[in-house]
Specification:
The chain has about 425 residues and is of the alpha+beta class. It is about 70% helix and about 10% strand. It has 15 helices and eight strands. A hairpin with a 2-residue loop joins β4 and β5. α3 crosses α6, α8 crosses α10 and α9 packs across α10. The radius of gyration is 30 Å and the shape is elongated.
Length: about 425
């Protein structure tokens, strides 16, 4: 039961952290910019696609099965609907190919740059991507993305064609439709996974990335279904005239980018939930307004105790003077004493009470332990590895100031004890 509650706490804390960071990072503005560059990239791409389909149509005129397959591909890609919307002209000239290709390259670079700018905010990092890599990345991402989308579209057209013809039974047709959907979902998942895993400079864990990418892909499919059910192109064309099609697609692209960035922020939050919870526990207090909500979300420490907690009996040693360990300790309950060997005898430097962080000096100064800490009563302490302490200090300026202030006071006490 405790484990289930801890999982619920983790999900609640991750959702809260995701929402807070999403608003703080103004990702809705980045979604709008990305949707705009997507529109610029999509139009020349569709022009080139239409030109290619016309060329393939001429090849299929003399072969009946090829003509049927071509018609199915044309319907699957919904080129007729895109022509009605106004994205595609009724006649695509050869000259449009070179112009569309140049526009596609320029707009695609803008699209990738918009994605990189958003990911720098979602996944902050002190390091910078190399200039050559940053310049070549759009040239790699766009062909890979277009190749996967093209493969998915071709496979969907072929599977959809065989599912509709009468030469196979109903069961086989239903199976092909399921395979069609599964293949499309897997292609979208792969694209989202590559974006979430490769675009951040500091890459998130693969397992978390794969799971969040699957949820993002499923959400995009649900968004597409909802958008197609509740929104009608005719309404936008009646309101905006010939621009109605562009407005319709732009709104859909904006919502898709919102979903994409929301799950990206969730991926970052999944790796930082422990840091957020530890910060709230160490600093304490909830305040008013939003602090009440934080107090409710981060009020339970059971999950942290299960993951980092250790129990020490009275007289048991937590830290030995002179050892090389670098773990930091947070005294959750009980009391302990700090001791040091001075002039051949052990002297007590002071007491440690609930809510105090200690043991961080060894990590910050990269030195051996300067004192021994013993439990005076039964003690429950959170034992934090060095990498967690580093994340905490990078993440929380108030906590860093408190640690530095405590460290200065501790050094002052040790100097006074050494002089007496």
């Amino acid at each position: 039961m405790i484990t289930r509650h801890n999982k619920l706490d983790w999900l609640l804390q991750m959702a809260y952290t995701t929402a807070r960071l999403f608003v703080k990072n103004s990702l809705q503005n980045h979604a709008a910019a990305t949707a705009f560059y997507f529109m610029l990239s999509a139009t020349p791409l569709l022009l080139l696609l239409s030109y290619g389909m016309q060329w393939l149509g001429k090849l299929a005129e003399t072969y009946v099965p090829a003509t049927m397959l071509f018609a199915a591909l044309y319907n699957q890609l919904q080129l007729e609907s895109l022509t009605a919307i106004g994205f595609l002209p009724k006649q695509t000239q050869l000259a449009a190919g070179s112009v569309g290709l140049l526009t596609l390259v320029l707009s695609s670079r803008g699209l990738v740059n918009a994605l990189q700018s958003a990911f720098k905010i979602i996944f902050p990092s002190d390091t910078k991507r190399k200039f050559v890599v940053s310049w070549l990345l759009p040239l790699i991402i766009i062909p890979v993305g277009l190749g996967l989308l093209g493969l998915a579209g071709l496979a969907q057209a072929v599977l959809g064609f065989f599912a509709q013809v009468e030469i196979i039974g109903g069961f086989q047709a239903g199976l092909l439709k399921v395979l069609n959907f599964a293949f499309m979902l897997s292609m979208v998942w792969l694209l989202v996974f590559l974006a979430y895993w490769r675009l951040p400079i500091s890459r998130p864990p693969v397992r978390h990335t794969a799971t969040i990418a699957l949820l993002a892909a499923a959400s995009l499919f649900c968004l597409l279904a909802i958008f197609g059910h509740f929104f009608r192109l005719e309404k936008y064309q009646s309101l905006y005239g010939t621009l109605g099609g562009a407005v319709f697609v732009l709104i859909g692209a904006y919502f898709a980018c919102l979903v994409f960035y929301l799950w990206a922020q969730c991926l970052f939050a999944a790796t930082r939930v422990d840091v957020e919870a530890l910060e709230k526990l160490f600093l304490g207090g909830s305040g008013e307004g939003a602090g009440k909500l934080e107090g409710f979300v981060f009020g339970r420490a059971n999950r942290l105790l299960e993951k980092f907690g250790h129990t020490y009996q009275a007289g048991e040693v937590l830290i030995n003077e002179g050892e090389d360990s670098l773990d930091a300790f947070f005294l959750y309950s009980g009391s302990a004493g700090a001791y040091k060997i001075l002039n051949g005898s052990e002297r007590k430097l002071g007491s440690l009470n609930e809510g105090q962080l200690f043991g961080e000096m060894a990590y910050l100064l990269k030195e051996k332990r300067t004192a021994t800490v013993k439990a005076e009563t039964e003690v429950v302490a959170l034992v934090l590895p060095p990498e967690m302490l580093e994340q905490l200090m990078r993440h929380s300026a108030p906590l860093s100031r408190r640690i530095i202030g405590t460290l200065c006071q501790r050094l002052e006490k040790m100097n006074l004890a050494a002089q007496t």
